[in-house]
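Task: sequence design from structure.
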């Protein structure tokens, strides 16, 4: 009997240890990744699906030395109709027309959507010299993510770019200013401070960080004259640079970009 009681005691102790270990581990299992880092499809949106499928073809139609990863601000480079404030084609042609550039900007995309596109073929088989990343604005729209969640999403995009394109140099741009609301203004500032601390001064090999927000601001706030949204009917809060402002952004990043590409400075 004594032997049986000893065995039972040992088994009970073992079960208690297992239960305790599960309780300790439970928070780790319960923790979920930030939504900004989880790939999300928009394939149920017809135009988005069509653009994704078209970009899969375009990406392999010709050599790609420069790829843009972003949202509507990047996609706007494909607009080429009057009035002049939304005719971006001349800007694209001047700065990127001879650089075998691929525009992977999608209207409305947050980091989660860009991650999905990257995981579903848009950069597969490519080996560009440089990738320009401008993403994060839509995390402060309908999604209303916190600064930390937005930051984690941008970090995930940088990490995925490095994983998918290991030989590609990255030019990471700060989130551009806007005047949507106080939350977006404050969150943008917090995101950019964190990105500068993490990626500025070449802290991460292969990643160059640049903040060109000054091109779009006046007296510390978004300069409405630099944005096309107030010119729309009906007008909207300043978020998207005009073609002229986009040209100034292109000129501002040109010294870094030409150095990364190893070609001439197109702003001169």
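Answer:
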């Amino acid at each position: 009997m004594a032997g049986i009681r000893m065995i039972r005691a040992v088994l009970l102790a073992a079960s208690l240890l297992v239960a305790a270990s599960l309780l300790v581990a439970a928070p780790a299992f319960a923790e979920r990744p930030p939504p900004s880092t989880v790939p999300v499809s928009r394939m149920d949106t017809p135009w988005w699906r069509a653009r994704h499928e078209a970009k899969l073809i375009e990406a392999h139609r010709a050599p790609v030395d420069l790829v843009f990863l972003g949202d509507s601000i990047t996609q706007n480079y494909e607009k080429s109709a009057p009035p002049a404030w939304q005719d971006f084609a001349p800007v694209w042609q001047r700065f990127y027309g001879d650089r075998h550039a691929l525009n992977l900007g999608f209207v409305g995309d947050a980091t989660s959507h860009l991650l999905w596109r990257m995981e579903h073929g848009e950069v597969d088989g490519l080996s560009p010299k440089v990738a320009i990343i401008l993403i994060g604005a839509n995390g402060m729209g309908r999604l209303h993510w916190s600064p930390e969640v937005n930051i984690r999403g941008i970090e995930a995009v940088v990490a995925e770019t490095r994983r998918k394109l290991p030989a590609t140099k990255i030019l990471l741009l700060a989130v551009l200013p806007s005047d949507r609301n106080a939350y977006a203004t404050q969150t943008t500032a917090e995101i950019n401070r964190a990105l500068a601390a993490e990626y500025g001064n070449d802290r991460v090999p292969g990643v160059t960080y640049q903040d060109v927000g000054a091109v779009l601001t006046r007296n510390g706030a978004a300069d409405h004259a630099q944005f096309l949204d107030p010119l729309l009917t009906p007008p909207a809060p300043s978020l998207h640079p005009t073609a002229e402002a986009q040209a100034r952004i292109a000129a501002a990043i040109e010294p870094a970009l030409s150095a990364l590409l190893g070609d001439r400075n197109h702003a001169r």
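The beta strands are 66-70, 101-105, 130-134, 169-173, 207-210, 217-218, 221-222.
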